[in-house]
Every structure is written in structure tokens, then in C-alpha cells.
Specification:
The structure is a single chain. By secondary structure, this protein is α/β, with parallel strands linked by helices. Helices cover about 35% and strands about 15% of the residues. The protein is built from 17 helices and 17 strands. The strands form five sheets. A seven-stranded mixed β-sheet has the order 8-14-13-12-9-10-11, sandwiched between helices. The protein has a three-stranded antiparallel β-sheet with strand order 4-17-16. A three-stranded antiparallel β-sheet has the order 5-6-7, with helices on both faces. Strand 10 (about 235-240), helix 11 (about 245-250) and strand 11 form a beta-alpha-beta unit.
Length: about 450
């Protein structure tokens, strides 16, 4: 089974639609030892085909529009955060303490982009100074697994480098491997709101769909950024005390509105939003929202017919089920960093492909759920994890042939526009189908500046 057929099957797609997809293959796009290009192409392809299918159903078209994938567009979008310019300024993607470090017996990967994670990392290291030399000296005296456990116990993020064989022997790896790429669960028997027919151009499959975006960082925001491209009214909700990193918000905020709510103190406002939502997308670690009465089942009880899309780093099961995680940490734990590195130093994929790939696959799952609700209008939940996407990359996708064209410059898939944040250069979406949108209807606005209401 090819990558795109696997991805399309994972979201419940009809295999008879796969011939609607064609691909422009380009040599050098997302070059790596692992089949990253094939994973990226599969995730974007499943998303574009799901969008085209939903658009055709809502517009009453005689057939699903053709989907055209381009490795150049996909490779550019998978590193969108690196192509972003804000008034000519290049964003910083990783903080100084987010990196690989030598330990007494190997390597450990830390993530400290957010101030609260950085503080917890330093606390776990005995109050080390916020200085790379001091942190490096503290880590060099300890084993990688000891650092991993100590930092996680302090609420921070650190993962010991593992080989694929070491990861495969771990209980969490076994729990991840036995799950499907996309998990599906029926939530209720209620009838979801019927979406009106579509007309006009461009074809916007998700027009009129209201999406509550409770995600952060990259994967979840990429999914909701894609839904906004396709016409959804996406309202991102963040805690006022946990601002998103400014450049990350600029990269993933296209098409959305952004507001802040305290989910305890502002609960009445949140419930008003939920009462009119069609989709809720969550990206917090498993259990975090459950403790606030916001599990998938509880959300569906209060909003029958709801689609809930949940994203996590490690899955909501196994000994790591409630751990925080990021793409770079999953690469380190699962053996990807070992494969892509050298005997002297761990490596990395050419993009944060677990984040981006899972994001597009999550959007595909939501779009397919919306299509299925046209006939089976009950609520449902879809779940994905970065670790399960990593398992698919490691063991489920075969490398494909190189293309006749060469990917040597991303300029064809970049554009510029003014925004409340300044003049932006950014990557266009790789999700493309005949008659569909080319760019977002609005640029990102100021984080948290929008009212907590639907358009």
C-alpha cells in the first residue's frame, strides 16, 4: 500500500477516489534517509482529497475535483516556519536551551522554547543558570535516562536519545504500534447540524463550519490553519497567562481569529462558544482538558453531534500517555534522530515532519468526518499522535522514485502580504484541488485580540 493510500484509508476514504490525485515529483525535496517526502506527500494528499470530496458533496458536483500534489509546494510548506519573514526579520525557531546535549552515557534532547518549560528544566538541574555552558556541564555529569525522568518529574521536557531497537523494546512503543494511524470513536447518536449547500468560487469545502481551536505549537495549529484556508470560521482559544510564541503565532495564525479565555473563570463564555461549534480540535497533553470537564465525551454530551479531533505527542495510553512532547523529542525517542545522525552526533529530519504531517492528517480526518456526517450525522472523535506518525514513517512507508524535476528554490510557493503584525513573507498552503482556494482570506492578527464569539 502506498503512502497516500495508507493515509487515505486511515481517515476512512473511499479508495475509488485515489485516481483523482496526481503528483509533480521533484528530486531533492525533503531529502533524508527515511521516506519523509513520501510521508509529507501522503498526508497533504489525503487532506486535499478529503477537501475536494467534501466540496463536491456540498456543491452537488458530478465528480470530485482533481487533486494535484507538488513536492515543491509540500516541501516548502513543511518548513513554513523557516520561510516566514516579519518585516524582513528571520524568526528564531529554537531557543538556546532547546537542543541535543551530551550526557555521561549518551545524548539527551531538551525543549525549552516556552518560558515555563525553560524554568522547569533549570529547576530539575538543581537551579542551573540559564546559560548553555552551565546547562551542558550539569547534564554531562548525569545519565540520559536520569535526566529524562528528572526533567519530566519537574514538569519540563527532555528525552534520552534512543536507537530504533531501543525504542521498539519500550512499552510505550508497543502501545503506539498496536494502534491505528488514526483512531475513530463514535460519541453519540445525535444529529449534527446540516451544512448548507455551496456555490460560488473558489470552492470552500469547510465554509460555515465553526472550529474551536484549543491547540498550540505546530501540529494542531497547522490542522486548523488548513481548515481556515478551506473556509472554516476558526477561533483559537489560549489561556491568557500562556501566550503563544509570537513568530509561531504568525506562521500558523493565517485565516484564524485569536482570543484568550480562562477555561475556569470564563467558563460561561466557553460554553456559549461550544454550543454553536461544529468541531473542537485539542492539542494539550492527554488528561489536561479532561480535568476541566472537557473530555471528548463530555464535550459531546453538551454539544450533541460534535466532531472532536485530539492530538498528542505520545498517544493517550501507555506509561507516557500523560507526558508532554514535541516533534524534536519524538524524533529523539523513537530512533529517528539516531538514523538521521552520525556516530558522532544525533541528527534530525529535514523538517518538523511529524508535526506538519500529523497536522495535515488531522485536518483530513476532520474533513472526512464532516463528509460522513452528511449521511451519518452522529458525533465522533478522531485521535492522532506524533509518536504514531513516527511509527508509520519508520515502518509503514516505502521510499518512492525521484522526480524528473529538481526542487532547488522555494520562491514559487512563497508570497507576501501586509498584516497587523507587519509585512509577512510566508509559504502558501500545499493543499490544492481544482477550483479550490490558493491563499487564506485573512492574515494572522494580534495574538488574543479578537472577541470570543463566532462570526
Amino acid at each position: 500500500m502506498t503512502g497516500i493510500s495508507s493515509a487515505w484509508s486511515a481517515v476512512g476514504g473511499d479508495p475509488a477516489l485515489l485516481p483523482r490525485v496526481s503528483t509533480v515529483m521533484r528530486e531533492g525535496a525533503l531529502h533524508a534517509r527515511l521516506p519523509v517526502r513520501e510521508l509529507a506527500r501522503a498526508c497533504v494528499g489525503a487532506c486535499a482529497l478529503a477537501a475536494a470530496e467534501l466540496g463536491a458533496r456540498r456543491a452537488g458536483l458530478p465528480q470530485v475535483p482533481e487533486v494535484r500534489l507538488d513536492d515543491g509546494a509540500i516541501a516548502t510548506a513543511f518548513v513554513s516556519e523557516r520561510h516566514l519573514l516579519v518585516d524582513g526579520r528571520v524568526p528564531v525557531t529554537f531557543a538556546p536551551l532547546s537542543r541535543f546535549w551530551r550526557t555521561a552515557d549518551g545524548w539527551v534532547r531538551t525543549h525549552a522554547n516556552y518560558p515555563h518549560h525553560r524554568a522547569r528544566l533549570l529547576a530539575a538541574l538543581g537551579g542551573a543558570q540559564e546559560d548553555p555552558d552551565a546547562v551542558g556541564a550539569a547534564l554531562a555529569e548525569r545519565s540520559a535516562r536520569d535526566v529524562e525522568e528528572a526533567v519530566y518529574a519537574a514538569g519540563g521536557l527532555a528525552v534520552a536519545l534512543r536507537t530504533p531497537e531501543e525504542w521498539a523494546a519500550d512499552q510505550q512503543a508497543a502501545e503506539v504500534a498496536r494502534r491505528p494511524l488514526v483512531e475513530h470513536e463514535r460519541l453519540d447518536a445525535a444529529r449534527a447540524r446540516a451544512l448548507p449547500p455551496l456555490d460560488g468560487s473558489p470552492l470552500l469545502p469547510a465554509a460555515g463550519v465553526r472550529v474551536l481551536d484549543l491547540t498550540r505549537v505546530i501540529a494542531g495549529p497547522v490542522a486548523t490553519r488548513t481548515l481556515s484556508l478551506l473556509g472554516a470560521d476558526v477561533l483559537r482559544v489560549d489561556a491568557p497567562q500562556l501566550p503563544e510564541l509570537a513568530d509561531q503565532h504568525a506562521d500558523t495564525g493565517f485565516g484564524k481569529r485569536s482570543t484568550t479565555l480562562d477555561l475556569v473563570a470564563d467558563r460561561h463564555t466557553f460554553e456559549d462558544l461550544l454550543a454553536a461549534a461544529d468541531v473542537v480540535v485539542t492539542g494539550y497533553r492527554p488528561g489536561a482538558l479532561d480535568r476541566l470537564g472537557l473530555s471528548a465525551q463530555e464535550l459531546a454530551e453538551r454539544r450533541p453531534g460534535l466532531i472532536v479531533a485530539q492530538l498528542s505527542a505520545w498517544g493517550s495510553y501507555g506509561p507516557w500517555g500523560e507526558r508532554r512532547g514535541f516533534d524534536s523529542l519524538v524524533q529523539a525517542a523513537t530512533g529517528i534522530a539516531a538514523i538521521e545522525g552520525s556516530p558522532e552526533r544525533p541528527g534530525a529530519l529535514p523538517a518538523q515532519a511529524l508535526d506538519h504531517g500529523t497536522g495535515y492528517l488531522l485536518a483530513a480526518a476532520v474533513l472526512r468526518a464532516l463528509t460522513e456526517q452528511r449521511e451519518q450525522r452522529y458525533g465522533r472523535c478522531v485521535q492522532l499522535s506524533l509518536a504514531r506518525t513516527a511509527e508509520w514513517l519508520l515502518n509503514g512507508i516505502e521510499p518512492g522514485p525521484e522526480g524528473n524535476l529538481v526542487y532547488d528554490a522555494p520562491d514559487a510557493w512563497l508570497t507576501e502580504r501586509d498584516s497587523p503584525l507587519g509585512r509577512l513573507r510566508y509559504a502558501l498552503s500545499p493543499v490544492s484541488f481544482a477550483g479550490g482556494p490558493v491563499d487564506w482570506a485573512r492574515p494572522p492578527g494580534v495574538w488574543g485580540a479578537d472577541a470570543a464569539r463566532w462570526v
